[in-house]
Amino acid sequence: MQVKALLSLGILLGFGAVSTMASWTGTATSTSTISAATVALAIGDSEPLDSVTYELGMATMEWFPGMRQAETVALKNIGTVDSPYSIGGSMGAGELGLAMEISVHPGGTVSDVSETVVSCTGNAEYVKASGEQSFTSSQQPESSSLMLGTLAVGASETFCVQAELPIGSASSLQGQQSSMNLTFTATVGAS
Q: Which neighbouring-strand residues pair with 87?
């Protein structure tokens, strides 16, 4: 019996020895709330700029040869990150769209010459020539769009858009319609 008692005592001492060994630990946690940026542009003729579409006033005019109209449009970065941006353009199908001359003047303003001849000031950096369907840029002739720079959060840029139906345009253009689309695109991140 003494042997059993000694063995039992050894087992108890063994458990006791294990339970008295302490392991100390410490932890530190780093957390972060991650928010994705928003890339957003708004367009219009004046503040507040909060729409993603805008119809130029010249769309309601009845065009005739020699008529030139201009209008300013403002673009604003309403996103949460500075954004590189570009402009792209297209004309609708048809002979009238083909005949029109369109130019975009970054930073330009409207200069009234007469009621039917209104021009833009500044350099025309993005143009659609009469007889051409697509827009081109002297800065980036290989591309159908033009990189304009980076628009800071909350910043806006003004553009003057000029349209003209050249003198000598065909009489067959009477009553025709076409559309013009200028698309400003902000792109952030790797492509």
A: 146, 184
CB 65 within 8 A of CB 166: yes
d(CA 82, CA 76) in angstroms, rounded, equals 11
Residue 17 has pLDDT above 90, yes or no: no
**Residues 83, 38: Cα–Cα separation, whole Å:** 10
CB-based contact 71:160 (threshold 8 Å)? yes
Helix or strand run (H / E) with residue 99: helix 95-99
Could you report the per-residue pLDDT of 20-69, keeping only the tens digit for each? 567 888 888 888 888 888 888 888 877 777 777 888 877 777 899 999 99
CA distance linking residue 59 with residue 179, whole number of Å: 8
Residue 54: which of 138, 148, 176, 156 has the closest Cα? 156
**Rounded CA gap, 9 and 42, in Å?**
83
Domains assigned to the chain: 41-186 (2.60.40)
